């Protein structure tokens, strides 16, 4: 590996994290599209095709039927793949996560919209939260609105509506965020993309975050605000989404 490659030197190596279960890689086409979009924004010329991406990803999980996480990075003109076991547990899904509120703010930056190795802020704040006894943390954006979790997009439920921070809140617009919003829309559940303040947390009955490994992960507490219900209890449509794509995390 060339340590002076600009992706390595500046933390701009693009990557994707995918989940596979029983030989199926979820949303692989969406991950490929996002990787190609990241490469375009970064100005990296490449000849990566979906056929090659699909072939190498599926080749890496041959014979593996349990849940497995696939990390694909693009470096030195090609993709490299590494597998790891999921870090989430069914026990965590059952109790929900307790998240702190980071004092660090998410800046306004083009880097918010591409997935690269430039994850230092998230990594450091996640470690700090864990040292204080939390499971992880959330961030506010540079204006003080709720942005995202360290490793996922945030959602909240009140009455019949689902709320999520808008794309202007310095978020990485995740693939599961997109697919869940599409699923809810098809099932006539309105999703409000908006600015959300910390003071408004007390009005929500449930909270969760989404990412490509966990799917929909329940949150039991953010700071001093406790959420009494899980998202799958409140919205059957969210439960349906989990059962369709992330049955490996089923706690029922």
TrEMBL record:
InterPro entries per UniProt: Aminotrans_IV, Aminotrans_IV_CS, Aminotransferase-like, BCAT-like_C, BCAT-like_N, Class-IV_PLP-Dep_Aminotrnsfr
A Gene Ontology BP annotation from the UniProt entry: carboxylic acid biosynthetic process
Keywords noted in UniProt: Aminotransferase, Pyridoxal phosphate, Transferase
Cofactor(s) in the UniProt record: pyridoxal 5'-phosphate
Pfam family, one: Aminotran_4
PANTHER family the UniProt entry points to: AMINO-ACID AMINOTRANSFERASE, AMINODEOXYCHORISMATE LYASE
Entry similarity comment: Belongs to the class-IV pyridoxal-phosphate-dependent aminotransferase family.
Record's protein name: Aminotransferase, class IV
């Amino acid at each position: 590996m060339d340590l002076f490659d600009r992706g390595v030197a500046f933390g701009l190596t693009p990557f994707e994290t995918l989940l596979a279960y029983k030989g199926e890689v979820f949303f692989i086409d969406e991950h490929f599209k996002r990787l190609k979009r990241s490469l375009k924004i970064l100005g990296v010329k490449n000849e990566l095709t979906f056929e090659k991406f699909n072939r190498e990803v599926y080749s890496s999980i041959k014979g593996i039927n349990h849940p497995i996480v696939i990390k694909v990075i693009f470096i030195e003109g090609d993709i490299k793949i590494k597998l790891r076991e999921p870090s989430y547990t069914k026990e965590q899904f059952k109790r929900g996560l307790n998240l702190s509120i980071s004092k660090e703010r998410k800046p306004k930056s083009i880097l918010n919209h591409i997935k690269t190795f430039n994850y230092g802020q998230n990594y450091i704040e996640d470690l700090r939260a864990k040292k204080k006894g939390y499971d992880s943390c959330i961030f506010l954006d540079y204006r003080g609105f709720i942005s995202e979790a360290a490793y996922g997009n945030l959602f909240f439920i009140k009455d019949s509506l689902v709320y999520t921070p808008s794309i202007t809140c310095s978020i990485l617009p995740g693939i599961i965020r997109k697919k869940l919003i599409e699923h809810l829309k098809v099932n006539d559940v309105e999703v409000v993309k908006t600015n959300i303040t910390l003071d408004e947390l007390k009005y929500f009955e449930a909270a969760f975050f989404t990412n490509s490994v966990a799917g929909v992960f329940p949150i039991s507490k953010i700071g001093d605000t406790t959420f009494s219900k899980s998202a799958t209890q409140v919205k059957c449509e969210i439960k349906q989404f989990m059962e369709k794509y992330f049955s490996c995390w089923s706690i029922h």
